[in-house]
Structure of Gamma-glutamylcyclotransferase:
Amino acid sequence: MPQKVFYFAYGSNMDQDRLRGRIGSFHSRKRATLNGYNLVFNKRDSSYPGSGSANIVRGEGRVEGILYEIDETSLKRLDYYEGFPAHYNRIEVEVECEGKLLKAWVYVANENKVEEGLKPKREYLNHLLKGQDLLSEEYIEELQAVETID
């Protein structure tokens, strides 16, 4: 039986239907926070010039997201969809979930794939907002305030 791992989603995979379409099922879905990072939209989206996908960078802030428990085989499928290792690197971080610190995998854009001044497409940002059932009101407002390219 495949080993289970945690995956922290801060971008479009907060949309559980999108994630299911990529990897199939998952075992659990919970709110989690990654401290010491900030959410940015600086990962170049090759399908739409000037648009950026979600990424995280070290900083003074915190990133809210969804902690999924998935099988290692599902993680390998996710590697494919996230463009690992060419577009994103997968690193292990500690996230806070239900008062505990848990180790989880997260994807961080490779430096040669980032660019300043990018903005997400509205459709892309809507995927992030589909995680709002597990996000704080404050964080939802921050996401809603993000300026989009369209």
